[in-house]
Amino acid sequence: MHATEGVFNWDQYDNPNKKLGSAYTDQQREDMAALYRATLSAISQYEVVKGSVISITHKDVIVGVGYKSDGLVAASEFRDLPDLKLGDEVEVYIEETENTKGQLVLSRKKAKLVRAWEKIQHALEHGEVLEGLVKRRTKGGLIVEVCDIETFLPGSQIDIRPVLDFDVFVGKTIDVIVIKINHTNDNVVVSHKALTEKKLEGQKFEIISNLEKGQILEGYVKNITKFGAFIDLGGVDGLLHKLDMSWSRVNHPEELFTLGQKVRVVVIGFNEDKKRISLGMKQLQEHPWDALPETLEVGSTIKGTITNIADYGLFIELMPGIEGFVYILDISWSQYLRDINEYYKIGDTIETCILSLDRKNYKISLGIKQLTGDPWEHDRFLSTYAVGTTHEGVVRNLTHFGAFIELEPGIEGLLHVSRLSETKRVAHPSDVLKLGEKLEVIVLGISRENRRLSLGLRQENPWDMCEKIFQVGTLHKGTIVKKIPGRGAIVELVHGIEGQVAQHHFIKADGQEPEVGEELDFQVIKCAKADKKIILSHQILFNPEVDAKVEAKTRGEAKGKIEKAPSTRGFEAFANLKEQLEQHTKKESKE
What we know:
elongated; 7 helices; 36% strand
């Protein structure tokens, strides 16, 4: 066989006059392509287009959108169109112009969702009213289906009046307007209350323009606060302050009202510009002061109930709607009454005295302490607090010069700092006394005109014993507690009794001054009961010259000098000292 035998010869067909379509010119070919392209629609992914139903099966619906291929849509997406037939026009969403299989992917469900969001956005921008179906109750409000989208209706936006039961709206159709769209989480907030308010806006102007002071109206309790209640008068709200609810004291409006309650009120004031209306209820009742007996006058006693306790006094309800006030200074004669709550409680019934009565301005001032009278003016005062009488008192105040002791409410006296101790010096009363401490005191002086008592401590006179123990010439241990430059020092003896030592009796045997806190032996060179002084010497123990001078000085003050005794320490040495005194007396009788 020839080498080229069995090989197709294309050259014999290479004649241009023999090619397919060779009968058309280039222009004719271009015109035909343009006609074909015109039959196809220009579609883009992620847009909504209109299409025509080409075929319907039990699973799918074939929709033609004028593209080079038709798309399939699940039949379940047409459940809302039970009468769907061939040729019907529907809107579909282009999910993909060509998937991996070369097919056009469509969705009617997403098309409806896009159109719904467009409608909701338009309603928000233009304030259009939409119809919604309340699907269910949720925390704080209702879920309402609007244009196939679930929206949130807050409880505060359901109605102009507070709604207590949300369940009654479930399953009902209501009109709403869109007030907010959160595109981040596709959340839509709607309101039904705004529609109602819009309808009532025109009524508000009419109501306010026809208001008159003293006009009686009916309304519903819309809201309750701690200061009052807001009353819905049929499109406009008015404030009923708690002071205008009742002539009696109202602690909180919840004591009288509940939400939705129907009430009868009177207009006591309004501001047409600011649309504020002030309402009252007590003004519809008779004024309680009209029932106040004419027999009541200043000085009369009257019982009442404590309705409120303040830092500055007590509020007393004498009759329903009539309240008096007791200032804190009129509660007790004592000036140390600080916390009223320790003595009185709300609800207590107490007796008071009328101090002032102003019927014109509805004011009553009351007093409690006036019922007992001024304790300084009582007839029993002079006998009760006579000089020399003893009393138990309470330390109420401490100053640098003494302590104020309250003997009874309104009666106090001064215990001077110099009388706080008979045996040692007290720098400040707080060193030995505490506030609130109870003391036994004795009255030393009275100035009734100046309302003053002079007090002293009730105690045995220690100097009667000191004179016997600290006799001249006896030896005692003492501790230096204070040095007085150029004058000497203060020495503490047994049981806190203090003595004084002069500068020249202060020097030790080595010529040095002792330091504070150092303990030394001292000899008594003088014990003056009248002056409450014990004079001591340390140098006399080792310096005969000092001993001679002291002996000469004191020779005329006593019959004889008592022999130096061994050191006596405190009141426990009194028995030994007594024995020494007896021996000294026997020796003198023999001579």
